[in-house]
Structure formats: C-alpha cells, structure tokens
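Re: that chain you flagged

S.,

Sorry for the slow reply, it's been a week of failed gels. I finally had a moment to sit down with the sequence you sent. For the record, here it is as I used it:
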Amino acid sequence: MSFEFILRIIGLLVFAILGGYAGQDLASQYQRDIIVYVLGLGLVGALVGFIVTPYLTSRPARALRALLGRVAAETLFAGLTGLVVGLLIAALLAFPLSMLPEPFGGVLPFVGVLIFVYFGISLFVMRQGDIMGLLSAISGRGGESGSSSSWTNLNRNILLDTSVIIDGRVGDIAKTGFLPGTLLIPRFVLNELQYIADSPDGLRRARGRRGMETIAELQKLPNVMTRVSDIDVEGMREVDDKLVVLARQMKCPILTNDYNLNRVAELQGVTILNINELANAVKSVVLPGEVLRINVIQEGKEYGQGVGYMDDGTMVVVENGKDVIGEYREVAVTKILQTAAGRMIFARVDESNGKKKK
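Prediction finished late last night. Pasting the structure tokens below so you have them in one place:
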C-alpha cells in the first residue's frame, strides 16, 4: 500500500466527516430529513476527499522536494540564513511599528515581515560566495593565513564529468593547486560511473573502478574541497545534457576531456576546462636548431626513422634514427608540427657528438 493511497483514505474520511457536518447544518436550517442530507453530503465529501487529497498533500510536497533538489547546497543555506535574518529584523521592528495609529499599526508589522524576508533572502543568495568564504575562513579551512585561499575557492564550483574522473589526471592537477574551487560531482555522474564499474566488460569495469579510486583520492586531498551533490536536472536523461544545463544554472565551468561535450557546451555559452588542452599548453617549447637528448625506442613509419619521446610525452621523430634504436642520442630539432593529437617534433641525430649510450 503506497503512502499516497493512505493519504487518500485519510482525506476520504476527513472530507466525509466534514460533509456530514455540513449536511446536518443544512438539514437543520431547512428542516429536511437529516439522514438524507448527512449521508448525501458525506458521500460527496468522501469522493472529493479521495480525489483531491493528493493535490493538497503529496504532490505539492513532491514538487517542492524536486525544486529543492535542483538548488545548490550553498544557495539553499544562504537563502535559509537570509530568511532567518529577515524574520529577526522584522520581529525587532514589529513592536515599534505596532505602536503607530491605526490602520498603520495593524498593517505595517505584516508588511515589514514580507519586505525584510524578501530582501534578506535576495541579499544572502546574491552574496552566497562571500558568505561561504567567510565561514570557511572563520573555521580555519584556509590554512595558516585562514582567509584568502578559501575565500576565493568557495566562490567557484567546478563540475566534473565522467570522462575526466575516469581519466585520473584531475587528481594530479588538483594536488598542484591549479583548480581553485569546489570540485562538484553530481549524483547522476556518480551513478553513471557506478554503472560502468559494474559492467560485464573487463576494460569498462576497470575504467569505472579507476574513476571510483580517483574520487576517493580527491576527497582525501587536504587542499581540495570535493563534494558529491544530489542536485539534478529534470526532464533529461543524458548525463552530458544534464551537465550543460546544470552549468548554465549554476554559472560554473565543466572540467572534461570529452571533445563532443566540449563543443556542445561552448555552443551554449558554458565555460569548459579541457584537460587535454591544458596538457598541450604546458608541453615543453622547443625551436628549430635546439639540441635534445632522446632515447630512440622504436622505428618510425618512414624508412630510416626512429621515434622517441620527451619527458612530457611529446613525440620526437628522428629522421636518421633507425640505426640508434635503444640508445640515448643528442638530436637537433629540424621542424615542429602541430596536429590535432598534439605537438610532433622532427629531428636528426647530431653526429658531431658521436654515440652516447645509456
């Protein structure tokens, strides 16, 4: 038996009793048969109560719960704080306002409650970032200085999508302090990650579990605030669509390495923090003519080529490097090619220094 059905039964009984009392009053007023009126209006009241009760109880409560579920925790806390402050100010002013002559003394206290509650909620919601930063500074989350870092960090939420959590590099980036703000993981992203971790496919299962480990690692970092939120978006099923709508509502960026999500979000005016673009941006800058020390590890696609890698993962194609595979050699950069996959460097073995083995 569902909770809504129980409420319908209660509403049926309550409205039936009210209908019975109304029938008794009408029968007494018009001197009619009291039993007919009581039974008739009682049955009508029972029918109305059975139909109307969910629209007065469970369904408004469900709609309110869904609305509150879409509101960020910081916004909800700031709104409730503004409500309390507005009610306190209105209560302090109620007595002097009630001393005014009628009709002002009877009307202005109520008007004052409405005005101060409205301005209290509006002001605290608008300045929620500063309020949360101040609370964090007071509680000591900002470290020894206590204020500046936490004040800035809590002003900003960063939404994480599934791909960037599975990737795992977000943990290393967060350790460096280059992600100021609260890393927000919506519940629907966590659910998708759990679904991947439970996949019968071994590779997908391993990727999902690595994502779970990444979240656990982020939550242990002392200088990074990571929060799993129940906030959701109604009317959408795809995780990427929910993230874009949520980012627009909260006015915050999305951290991802998904190219398709990147393009869709940019078209809708949502800020994207792409880890792949960050990785390409911080790679070493070299110029033609510079000499690098490279371990040539394999053959290239073309005849006579060898391939090695710099410390940051940049591929170096050594044009005459086939004969020195497995050796560390100094190579001179000849040209640099920027591709969609990243930067590729072409070089030639610097024969003047001779062979230098590891």
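What I noticed first: The first helix runs from residue 3 to 30.

Talk soon,
D.
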